[in-house]
Every structure is written in structure tokens, then in C-alpha cells.
Write a structure and sequence with these properties.
With 156 residues, the protein is of the alpha+beta class. The protein contains 5 helices and 4 strands; from the N terminus they run H-E-H-E-H-H-E-H-E.
Length: 156
């Protein structure tokens, strides 16, 4: 609930709060979800079955913010909204000692089928949530600071 509360407080374009978080911890439902979400080309994500909880983050597209907005700017604001809310969730989970992995490689169609998600919602991301192994801190490979910014004008 703490993680959900952190996600609930996230900002969103036009404050439409397009998210709906599904929690799957029932082994039978999880097996069904894994079978449908991680088949065929998505098989590489089968490892997620080992997580005690899979969180499914869905979005419902708002007419003004997401359809008209996209036409004007070309930006899919709901994806940004889901990214921010999902990261709020992830950071709160970390604070509580939980481990998470953001999953983007899954069949959205399969998720909808397995969990009976209504037509109006689109699964955008899954989170595998569990307790990390002791001393499992890995080095994070990241670009160096000088390669990810610019001051005033690009190239300066
Ligand atoms: C949008 C997004 C989609 C991702 N999809 C997957 C995925 O489908 N499978 C997976 O194992 N990891 C996935 N990840 C995790 C990334 O691979 C991981 O965060 C990145 O490699 C950096 O690893 P680190 O944070 O452990 O250093 C995803 C992360 C993001 C942000």
C-alpha cells in the first residue's frame, strides 16, 4: 500500500492520473499471466515468474490530454505519466527493502486476456517485485555525466 500511495501522488499531464495498478500474487493467476504475457518472442521474460508479486501498470487514454495532446505535440503523455508513477512505486519499494525490475518486454494482448483487463485500458509496464538476495548489489553501468548533458546550447 505504501508503494501504491507513492504512485498515487505522482504528477500527470492535465492531472488525468491515467493509471490502474494490478497486483498479481495468486499462484494460479500468476501462472496464467506468465503463460500469456511471456510466450513466443516474449519468452525471455519468463524469469519474472519467480517474483512473488507481479504488478501490472495499465493506462486509460484521456481524450484531451492523450489524443488531442498527441496530435498537437506528438508526445504520448500517458507513457510519461506511467513512467513517473511507476518510478514513484519503485523508489518507495526500494525504501522498504524490496527489489523490483521494470518489465517492458511482454505481450500486452496476453496480459489483457489473462487478467480480463477492460478494452479501455492498455498494459504499459509490469514490475516484478520481491525481496532481493542478500549482498546482491550490482554495479550500475551508466553513461558518464559529460555525455548526458549540455549547457545553454547543444554541443557547448
Ligand atoms: C522501460 C523499461 C523496460 C524494461 N524492460 C525490461 C524487460 O523486459 N526485461 C528485463 O529483464 N529488464 C527490463 N528493464 C530493466 C533494464 O534492463 C535495466 O533497468 C537496465 O538494464 C539497467 O540495469 P540496472 O538498473 O540493474 O543497472 C526495463 C527497464 C525499463 C526502464
Amino acid at each position: 500500500m505504501h508503494c501504491l500511495e507513492a504512485a498515487r501522488l505522482a504528477p500527470s499531464a492535465e492531472n488525468v492520473q491515467p493509471w490502474r495498478f494490478g497486483f498479481v500474487d495468486d499462484p494460479i493467476v500468476k501462472t496464467k499471466l506468465v503463460k500469456h504475457a511471456f510466450s513466443g518472442i516474449y519468452r525471455a521474460t519468463r524469469w519474472a515468474e519467480q517474483a512473488p508479486v507481479l504488478v501490472v501498470i495499465c493506462a486509460r487514454l484521456d481524450v484531451v490530454a492523450n489524443r488531442l495532446g498527441k496530435q498537437m505535440t506528438g508526445i504520448d503523455y500517458y507513457l510519461i505519466d506511467i513512467g513517473i508513477a511507476g518510478e514513484h512505486f519503485v523508489l518507495q519499494a526500494q525504501e522498504l527493502g524490496l527489489g523490483t525490475c521494470w518489465i517492458g518486454w511482454f505481450s500486452a494482448k496476453g496480459v489483457k486476456k489473462a487478467l480480463h483487463v477492460p478494452k479501455s485500458y492498455r498494459p504499459i509496464a509490469l514490475l516484478a517485485v520481491g525481496y532481493p538476495r542478500q549482498n546482491s548489489v550490482r554495479q550500475r553501468k551508466r553513461k558518464v555525466i559529460k555525455n548526458i548533458h549540455f549547457y545553454n546550447e547543444y554541443g557547448q
